[in-house]
Design brief:
The complex is a heterotetramer, with 2 copies of chain A (about 350 residues) and 2 copies of chain B (about 350 residues). Chain A is about 40% helix and about 10% strand. Chain B folds into 2 domains: about 190 residues, Rossmann fold (3-Layer(aba) Sandwich); about 130 residues, Rossmann fold, CATH 3.40.50. In chain B, strands 3-2-4-5-7-6-12 form a 7-stranded mixed beta sheet, sandwiched between helices. Classes of the chains: A alpha/beta (about 350), B alpha/beta (about 350). At the B-C interface, helix 4 and helix 9 of B face helix 4 and helix 9 of C. The complex binds thiamine diphosphate (2 copies) and magnesium ion (MG) (2 copies). The site of one magnesium ion (MG) has 6 residues of chain D, from strand 4.
Chain lengths: ~350, ~350, ~350, ~350
């Protein structure tokens, strides 16, 4: 419950050496990917406020560096298993923003044909399996996908995201133990944003870090500043390489913060203002943009152009989605079972 | 009499029982509202932390087996825990603790151990997709050793929950998200506010209630579907079809007698629930009547239920899957022609 | 034709499918028989390690969520896993992976992902107490997205399991411990040995089979109860009560048509299962007939099931709880008088 | 899968200092308790062979020092939560041997009135809750019992037994994390007998010890020679004291071996002969008896007398059970629900 941890963590993290920026194409690609997530989720939030879409969403606002840092260098044939907070992961993995927007509008051409919704977004064709709204349950599933890579002798890997809260689920224990036992190609990525819904991570476990839990399974665990895109990318690169070469899983703990509430209706009353503002100051997109400009990889004008073009993409997606067809009510009866006329 | 929502009624029941009996305590994810916490995903336990402190309003890690296992263990040791896992769908994460442990423990001990615990679980579809939508009563009416209740009014919510807390057996309480009437209203939510006596009262298990009298068709419906049945009945009245609407209130034990009594008059039975058609709780009721009182019937038994699909997210499909007032009306009209 | 037990038939089905399709693999606790291991708690996977090696016959830790979660994940990635958790009762330990994940995944993806996995689970009471005895078919026929089968002969065991392995959906296979006929025989076990063709064959889902023709009563019974129904039918024949015995073989999908066809002749229905009375799978069948074909009936529908209790350990009580041949005979006689 | 571990463990263990014997009454009491378990389970095994009882049993043959060493000093108001292999724990906790024998015969006067059977033995009046045949599921239950001790402000504690195999269950993770978080009075006792059914512990996890998993929850974990009665008792005494004074849970890993098969029908074909004989030589009853005689706490004649009197007790229990009443078949319908005429 000690929120002083936040500060400790920052000092932990700043002690590490700064990871160099990548070449310009990748740098700009990563920037664009983070901006895409931010603008997509902001748009969704406005659509809710305006009553144009219904249901709920869990925004990853503030956690964009985790998604992009980990996923930027993965292949479409690598799998990615996400959670109730999947939009960032999906976009970073390459799911079509339009198809996701259509899904949010409940349209027939949504990435899950309107059946999944915000918490089940995914597109298997780019390796993003339908996201999982049962906290922790995507972990054993990810292990099974990794086992399939092993059986098929590919060098594809699986990235499995979950939150700090999920690490107290039985599925975390069973899943990571299995992956460790068989040296399976999974990168377990815990986005530690300090809260599971309204409950602080330190009120849910006695240990100080989640990374240290890796030891119970005999695999490496590492804590990283999740708002530092390049630090995330560097750690992910190592973990992914290890997984690809059959070296087994890694547990990465990315220290980050969700700027928005837990879900649409949450005002985050449980979070101290100074904690929120300290993290707001460490907005991962701002931080990365700062470096890009400072280290002269890109100019402000170039980066603004990226932002504008992404905004257009998002606006276009909204228009496209709104003008798309609703599913027929009876479509609800399809896709329960494969085969037999798709009933 | 005070008027209140179901959320308020449930909250009062818990608060009063906690004050009355120090063995009663709450546990679950985000059940405490200390320091800006939720006080339950649907605010049912709001304010209890202030009254009873953190030990009796225990915020837990996200660990459903822990939550329910602790409830089982504490109950066996003489406490009266009230467990919460936020959404009914998550009960599958701790099904062993409910079906293999809570339900069987008393029996396996030859009656020497009791498990007086309450498991609260919200059900119903609210546009959040298949893993936050299931109506799963039928899973638990299938597990001897468990009691299963489903209050649909503020009066019943308070009275049945008190009975559940005082009961010496494990009781599952299914609450409907669209009936809570609390702060977190949803599209499709009914703003249910009802009279609740100020004095202490309980509602017994195994006693359904006739929500509306009628003479042509007996409609048995629970939770949200009970209200849709009431709306349908009102409309059908204009057609001169008179429906008797029964809210079973508790599913295990089930008040078969009340249904049978009603059938003596109406001789036609319709069962409506949001639980799935295949093996939903209504299957057992229909089967029971077909076994014991088939001669009372002048027509086939009509069942309306969620279609046999996971719940889709898009509103247009979700609406289609759950029985609507219109579907009930149509079914009643055709039932009268049989 | 070769004669074999159900254990041998299941083993052959798996071995042949693993040879035919390299996507098929087995996983579970003690499934391998390398170095003196069990080859499955009931020896169903014995010998497979030698043929297919440790990767395709994967011994796991005692981690049911891992086992079933891995099966779901591997299936989504295009493999065809066959998972085993030793006793059906343990499925409650991984119910989320079955009901929230395997069953819903295809639907939630809008049909873009399939989960072609098989989950094998032994059921039935064998003197080991309530946590090793449950017949839990009704829990899974209540979960749209799952298929549920229950082979009672060696022929069906092989043919249905092959169909299950080739099916693109998650399939639960309930096997009865007293019908295995393998090495581990139990008191009360039937030594079922049956003819199994040498050539490749499958048995389709959704097709029941008439095990014995008759004209007075249709008895629908699965697994062990099917044999008790057959014994009862033989004895009732002497009373001049002629029973048609139907083995549904698959519960989801269910062959309602076969039952209805039979009822056209017999006009009397009895349903017998070891699953509990309340909300056991027979409730749905009874309800379906009462809804769609009530006019076929000349008498109430009779249901026999395990009484609504956890399974007791002592033989005298266990025997009492499970429908016996005598109970079926009595019920048939009184049904003829109605 | 490296069976050399067995040897390593023994050397680990022998490096520790020898724990002194207790005063005579306790020493003889502990000896008697171990002998009672051994003779009871041997008797049950013969009864199976002779076909006089049915069903199955999981014997704790060889693991008696774990049960007795941990439970000898507990109070009747302390709780004990056992597994599918409960007979030793139950007897050491004070459950009536007669009532257990009657339960094995399925008699109405069994400790669970015939409803429980071998895997659910218990007697809440001495703190032994019905044993649990679902591997790992007794752990969260034990935590709940410990929480009740805390709420009621008693200084009673809970002993929770489980096997090496159980530590890979999700319930282990969730349960121990909860107990650690709230400093609950539980002693988690893992009897590591190297196998879960036919599977070696090293084929189920990548770490070498189970004790080290305690670190993931921020509690002490300790590995002890489970066949050395006094070593077990000493460690348990410390863990129990810690729990009683509100210091929180401890995880004890007791290295032991089941001499018998996993269950009645298991011939243990998966175990190397030399491993079996090495452990047979370390039979905990023999080891303790050796010390008692060597250190002159008791004579062989005294110890033989104890054995004989226990044997008489067991024989008497068999006679008593066989002559006891079967339940009425209809008794099966009772005890499902409390209240309402006990239906
Ligand atoms: C099994 C299960 N339990 C509870 C919930 C309700 N729930 C949804 S998100 C959430 C918090 C998750 O916290 P964390 O894992 O830290 O992820 P974050 O939301 O912070 O990204 C909870 C309790 C759920 N969806 N599934
Ligand atoms: C949840 C569950 N899974 C599987 C089983 C089947 N089973 C019973 S005992 C056992 C092995 C347990 O091993 P361990 O925990 O090491 O205890 P031991 O038998 O060695 O005492 C297994 C797999 C079970 N009873 N419960
Ligand atoms: Mg979090
Ligand atoms: Mg073991």
């Amino acid at each position: 419950m000690k929120n002083t941890d936040t500060i400790q963590l920052e000092s932990d993290v700043s002690a590490k050496t700064v990871v160099a920026l990548p070449e310009r194409t990748k740098a700009l690609g990563m920037y664009e990917s983070m901006v895409r997530i931010r603008k997509y989720e902001e748009q969704i939030y406005f659509l809710f406020l305006e009553g144009r879409i219904s249901g709920s969403i869990h925004q990853s606002h503030g956690q964009e560096a985790c998604a992009v840092g980990v996923l930027y260098d993965t292949r479409p044939t690598d799998y990615m298993a996400s959670t109730h907070r999947p939009a960032g992961h999906d976009l970073a993995k390459g799911v079509s923003l339009r198809a996701m927007m259509c899904e949010m509008f409940g349209k027939a051409n949504g990435c899950c044909h309107g059946k999944g919704g915000a918490m089940h977004m995914g597109d298997i064709s780019v390796g993003a399996v339908p996201a999982n709204a049962i906290v922790g349950s995507n972990i054993p599933i990810a292990v099974g996908m990794a086992y399939s890579c092993k059986l098929r002798r590919t060098d594809d890997i699986v990235v499995c995201f979950f939150g700090d809260g999920a690490t107290n689920e039985g599925g975390f224990h069973e899943g990571i133990n299995g992956a460790a036992l068989w040296d399976l190609p999974v990168v377990f990525v815990c986005e530690n944003n300090f809260y599971g819904a309204s409950t602080h991570v330190q009120a849910t476990m006695k240990v100080q870090t989640i990374a240290e839990r890796a030891a119970a399974y005999g695999i490496p665990g590492e804590r990283i500043d999740g708002n530092d895109l390049m630090a995330v990318n560097e750690a992910a690169t190592r973990a992914i390489a290890r997984a690809r070469r059959g070296g087994g899983p890694t547990l990465l703990e990315l220290m980050t913060y969700r700027i928005a509430g837990h879900s649409r209706s949450d005002a985050s009353a449980y979070r101290p203002d100074d904690e929120e503002s300290a993290w707001l100051a460490r907005d991962p997109i701002k931080l990365f943009r700062g470096r890009l400009v400072e280290e002269k990889v890109a100019t402000d004008a170039e980066l603004d152009a990226i932002e504008n073009s992404v905004q257009e993409e998002v606006d276009g997606a909204v228009q496209f989605a709104e003008s798309s067809q609703d599913p027929e009510p009876e479509d609800a009866l399809r896709n329960v079972y494969a085969g037999e006329g798709e009933v | 009499m005070p008027q209140m929502s179901i959320v308020e009624a449930l909250n009062q029941a818990i608060a009063e029982e906690m004050a009355r009996d120090e063995r009663v305590f709450c546990l679950g994810e985000d059940v405490s509202d200390a320091n800006g916490g939720y006080g339950g995903a649907f605010a049912v336990t709001r304010g209890l932390h202030g009254k009873f402190g953190p030990e009796r309003v225990l915020n837990t890690p996200i660990s459903e087996m822990l939550i329910v296992g602790m409830a089982v263990g504490a109950a066996m040791a003489g406490m009266r825990p009230i467990a919460d896992v936020q959404y009914g769908d998550f009960l599958f994460c701790c099904m062993d603790q409910l079906v293999n442990q809570a339900a069987k423990m008393r029996y396996m001990s030859g009656g020497r151990v009791s498990v007086p615990m309450v498991m609260r679980a919200p059900v119903g579809a609210t546009g959040r997709g298949a893993q936050h939508a299931q109506s799963l009563e039928g899973f638990f009416t299938h597990a001897p050793g468990l009691k299963v209740i489903c209050p649909a009014t503020a009066y019943d919510a308070k009275g049945l929950l008190k009975t559940a807390i005082r009961d010496d057996n494990p009781v599952l309480v299914f609450e409907h998200k669209l009936l809570y009437g609390g702060k977190r209203t949803e599209s499709g939510a009914l703003s249910m506010v009802g009279e609740v006596p100020a004095e202490d009262y309980t509602v017994p298990f195994g006693r359904g209630v006739v929500r509306r009298e009628g003479k042509d068709i007996t409609i048995v419906a629970n939770l949200l579907m009970m209200y849709r049945a009431m709306d349908a009945a009102a409309e059908l009245d204009e057609d001169d079809i008179s429906c008797e609407v029964i809210d079973p209130r508790t599913l295990a034990p089930f008040d078969y007698e009340l249904v049978i009594e009603s059938l003596r008059k109406t001789r036609r039975l319709m069962i409506v629930h949001e639980d799935t058609y295949s093996n939903g709780w209504g299957a057992q009721l229909a089967s029971y009547i077909a076994e014991h009182e088939i001669y009372l019937l002048d027509a086939p038994i009509k069942r309306l239920a969620a279609y046999d699909v996971p719940i889709p997210c898009a509103p247009v499909m979700e609406k289609f899957v759950i029985p609507s007032t219109a579907r009930i009306i149509d079914a009643a009209r055709s039932l009268m022609k049989m």
